[in-house]
């Protein structure tokens, strides 16, 4: 955790007063400052969030742009709330980066001009003390969208909606979801990573019909690799009548990756929101999250 900003930063520009009499934040800081970036992106042409040599990724694009603007010898390291897979979109991704001698408003303006059209910088602000984009988060909210209408999805939205050629029973999907809520070992729905826990708390798994779409909201404290798309594969299997709702409980209890659970296509998934505690609770939440990941 960064020490208190007051003891770390030397303000180079004096505070200015706006036309309405409000005090503005100092424009430039000397010393290390943590910045929060709120991002959105169309994941179609990215190989996911995380940097991979020779591949186009969201993290790689943003880090390269910051490094170019600030003329850094090495690219800065971004930490995000949710490392989205290849093809997954985001409307509410959050990341942080630690930089020296930086003018946040100027960096925000220049980043918005330099980033490609499929990445949007919603805001760039000085993070409060204790903020960590990954570990301070209370929950992540995703929405998965499927169109099961015979005509298929609206062509203008097909990049973020999965076309499904069999009708889905939303009531059965919600009944199946009820068996998965709460804290469990979700190993049956995750791609195992060495040393990483698969215990998660699933807060919401709710499907609703919105016109020709079935929209499923998925909320959890955190997610394992491919967990959301595997959960959707199980719900769709029940929704189209291949299994009874209680089948999801059987799969969950196996605690090993289940080949009968289809991982749904990436492009139907959007990271909509990341929720954080108030500023006073950030540091404690980060400590708790790290402890749980290490258990």
Quick summary:
This protein has 295 residues and is α+β, with helices and mostly antiparallel strands. It has seven helices and eleven strands.
What does this protein structure show overall?
It is a single chain. Strands 1, 2, 3, 4, 5, 6, 7, 8, 9, 10 and 11 form an eleven-stranded mixed beta sheet that branches. This protein is 24% helix and 27% strand. The chain has helices spanning 5-8, 58-70, 104-114, 170-178, 227-239, 247-254, 282-294; strands spanning 10-11, 29-41, 79-80, 89-102, 119-126, 139-147, 162-163, 182-185, 199-210, 213-220, 269-275. The protein has 295 residues and is an alpha+beta fold. Helix 2 (58-70) packs across helix 3. It folds into two domains: 5-136, 2-Layer Sandwich (Alpha-Beta Plaits), CATH 3.30.70; 139-273, 2-Layer Sandwich (Alpha-Beta Plaits), CATH 3.30.70.660. Residues 1-23 have low confidence and may be disordered. The protein has seven helices and eleven strands.
Observed structural traits:
295 residues; Alpha-Beta Plaits; 2 domains; globular; disordered N terminus
Count of helical stretches: 7
| Average predicted confidence as pLDDT | 89
Order of helices and strands: HEEHEEHEEEHEEEHHEH
Number of separate structural domains: 2
Ends apart, CA distance between termini: 20 Å
SSE map:
Elements lengths: L4 H4 L1 E2 L17 E13 L16 H13 L8 E2 L8 E14 L1 H11 L4 E8 L12 E9 L14 E2 L6 H9 L3 E4 L13 E12 L2 E8 L6 H13 L7 H8 L14 E7 L6 H13 L1
Parallel strand pairs: 4-11, 6-7
Antiparallel strand pairs: 1-2, 2-4, 2-5, 3-4, 6-10, 6-11, 8-9, 9-10
Helix pairs in contact: 2-3, 4-5
